[in-house]
Amino acid sequence: MESNQYMQPEVTIKKFDEEVGHFQRLSKTWREKGVFLVKKEFPILEFIFHGIKITPSPLAFAVRIDLTNYDIEPPSVKFICPFTGKILTRKEVQTQFIQIRKPDQFNPIIPIQNQIQQQDLLQGGPDEVPFFCIPGIREYHDHPAHTGDSWLLYRKRGEGTIGFILDQLYNYSIPTITSYKLGFFVIGLNNEIKFT
Amino acid sequence: MKQENLITLVFIVNGVEYTIEKVNINQPLSVSVSKVLKDSGNTGRDIDDWQLKWNDNNLDFNKKVEDYNLPDGAQLFLSLKAGIGGNGK
């Protein structure tokens, strides 16, 4: 893999190890939340997330977090196939990351559902590599629409740490996965009904 | 001797663990949250920028510890609310 590391590698390696250390000290807690570290190879960390609210618990998604140049740059987050490591497009990531925004005060004459906004934080067209659209993620700050929202406004304030990223990925997805959605087609063929 | 109205709470602040001892269960959660934010060096933000969860349920900072019947040693996740997301804003 080609390295774009321009920051002193020793500095990034130290910060990488600190982040891994924070995760490992809480690995039992993360495990209970269905979050596992499956690859640790500087500057890459890969995690898998399970939908622990349902049984059997599905493997909900996997991410590759790249800490190249951390923390003069924020981590990059890509969604990957947990089995092959292939970077996925938006339509291949089956999970939604819904952010619900409520107004500070509800207007009693407007239906509540019209006052609540829902946004999928995983942005990108169906065939594009999606990005997790919150400050603290490299792809957010690199996006042309966010040039006014520099990473340096957030660095050292909590965003961009591994704990922060795992928290956000978890909070906006796993608790909302509470049931399986099954689909089936009914095909009528020679007066015979088949379920596929 | 352990006093009945004092418990220990364990906060996970952006993935790092901090323990607050001798939390009075009659205090609002905001007292412990403010302390843990200070202890963790997270003082540059308004407390409303944070969200507190226990077993994936949001807790109201203004409610008392005993309102949630939190057990001694309860592990609470204190996370930054995600910033502006979506639609390239």
Description of the structure:
The complex is a heterodimer of chains A (196) and B (89). Chain A has 196 residues and is α+β, with helices and mostly antiparallel strands. Chain A has one domain (9-95, 124-195): Ubiquitin Conjugating Enzyme, CATH 3.10.110. In chain A, 19% of the residues lie in helices and 24% in strands. Chain A has four helices and ten strands. In chain A, the strands form four sheets. Chain A has a four-stranded antiparallel sheet with strand order 1-2-3-4. The longest helix of chain A has 17 residues, at 9-25. Chain A is globular and about 70 Å long. The mean pLDDT of chain A is 91. Chain B has 89 residues and is mostly beta strands. Chain B is 12% helix and 36% strand. Chain B contains one helix and five strands; from the N terminus they run ββαβββ. Chain B has one helix at 29-39, and strands at 6-13, 16-24, 50-54, 57-59, 74-80. Chain B has a five-stranded mixed sheet with strand order 2-1-5-3-4, covered by helices on one side. Chain B starts with 5 loop residues before the first strand and ends in a 9-residue tail after the last strand. The model of chain B has no long low-confidence stretch (mean pLDDT 88). The chains are: A alpha+beta (196), B mainly beta (89). Chains A and B meet through helix 1 and helix 4 of A and strand 5 of B.
- Strand line-up across the major sheet of chain A: 1-2-3-4
Helix and strand element order of chain B: EEHEEE
Q: Report the major sheet of chain A.
A: 4 strands, antiparallel
Could you describe the largest sheet of chain B, including whether it forms a barrel?
A: 5 strands, mixed
* Distance between the ends of chain A: 43 Å
Please state the second-level CATH architecture of chain A.
Roll
If strands are numbered along the chain, what order do they take across the biggest sheet of chain B?
A: 2-1-5-3-4
- Work out the largest interface and the residue count of each chain: A-B, 31 and 24 residues
- Strand share of the residues of chain B? 35-45%
Radius of gyration of chain B (CA) equals: 14 Å
Fraction of helical residues of chain A: 10-25%
Which structural category do the helix and sheet elements of chain B fall into? mainly beta
Name the structural class of chain A: alpha+beta
How large is the count of helical segments of chain B? 1
Number of strands of chain A: 10
Q: Kindly give the count of domains of chain A.
A: 1
Topology, number of strands of chain B: 5
Low-confidence parts of chain B, pLDDT < 50 over ≥5 residues? none
What's the overall geometry of chain B?
globular
Helix share, percent of chain B = 10-25%
Oligomer: heterodimer
